[in-house]
Amino acid sequence: MGDVYNVYEPWSNQALGGGGIVGITVAWVYPQVALVPMLAAHLFSWIAGYTFGWAVLVCVLDAAAFAFLVGRGRSRARMAGARVWLVLFVLLGPIGMYRIDAITVPLAIVALLLAIRHPAVSSAILTIGAWIKIWPAAVVLALTIAARKRWWVVVASAGATAAAVVLVIVALGGAGNLTGFITAQVGRGLQMESTAATPFVWLAVFGVNGAKVAFDDEIITFAVYGPGVDTMAALLTPLMALAVAAVCIVGVLKAKAGARMLRLLPPLTLTLVLVLIVFNKVGSPQFVAWIIAPFVLWVIVDRSGIRRGLQYAAITALLTQGVYPLVFDLVRVANPIGVVVLTARNVMLVVLLVWVVQQLLRVPTERSRVAHIAASGARRADAPPVLD
């Protein structure tokens, strides 16, 4: 719960007390709308303090999204999606509730449920989510590609929503810090929990080449230090961009070939989200919460062939709870036991990414369906008659 009472509460108290407003009058690492839920948690802080108020806020948002998901419980598919959400949430543990990412997960789930019939509304919700934590922008990108002929609706809605947010920020006097959450990430080092940091954490375990894990006061987290770390950190951003571009190309080709939106959107969304996690130099444990929304949609629209992916996701979520908070103190001092758990979690992230890329490549298209029907027809024509 550390971030809630160590940073969210002081930031919001500062804004309410007439001090500097993060993202507006003071540079900030988060998009500006992230301050809204931090302020909203004060509405419930009278019950048992700010941290409890934050938990209540998250529960209220989750309950509203959960009610929207299950309705009256008449849809087996939606009930299956609800079970997936609950299981992954429990396996992920407290990190799934006590971080700003917890605000964006229910928003993303509702947006994805609306994506097919109301792409403009879905895009607007996701854009607001991206102004809280950047990852829903990947879902907007996936929706733009999967929507095919309605792509312009998604783009127009996202653009209009973003413009409205920018106008509010500028009107409040935040023009100078408008893109601060982007520039603040440029000089960041390699966070201890990130996938790319794994080899360096092991070097720290054995004390090779002066590698170590230490606390970074600027970004308020633990990072790895040693030869090659800066080079790796510098490479990750362009590698992420290349990976996102490659996934988008696959998605566009699938869409042009006639892939149905319902079949393309879940694997495309999950692939982009996992690229943001695996190629990220930050790699905070709460990032794993991002995979919940695309899995919920996927289970609802198409459960065939997804069981293995759900198993991988469950293992990843459980190992993430193992990393934080269970063995976090061991990881930060480069203890082999903690690092083994962290390594296993990061390996599972890569395994999950490989699996979903395979699923994306297998998404059926109109051309593949026509070829399949033609082949089936030819086989039936050559086959002997079936006697009733």
Question: What's the story with the biggest beta sheet?
Answer: 2 strands, antiparallel
What is the domain total for the residues? 1
Helix content: 55-70%
Radius of gyration: 22 Å
The assigned structural class equals mainly alpha
Low-pLDDT sequence parts? 378-388
Kindly report the average pLDDT value: 93
Order of helices and strands: HHHHHHHHHHHEEHHHHHHH
β-strand amount = under 5%
Number of strands: 2
Strand order of the main beta sheet, please?
A: 1-2
What is the CA-CA span between the terminal residues? Answer: 67 Å
Outline: globular
Question: Number of helical runs?
Answer: 18
SSE layout and pairing:
Layout: H1 2-16, H2 35-40, H3 45-48, H4 50-70, H5 76-92, H6 101-114, H7 119-130, H8 136-146, H9 151-171, H10 180-186, H11 198-206, E1 212-216, E2 221-225, H12 229-256, H13 261-278, H14 292-301, H15 307-326, H16 328-331, H17 336-361, H18 366-382
Antiparallel strand pairs: 1-2
Helix pairs in contact: 4-6, 5-14, 5-15, 6-7, 6-14, 7-8, 7-9, 8-9, 8-12, 8-13, 11-17, 12-13, 13-14, 13-17, 15-17
Keywords for this structure?
globular; disordered C terminus; mainly alpha; two-stranded antiparallel ribbon; 388 residues
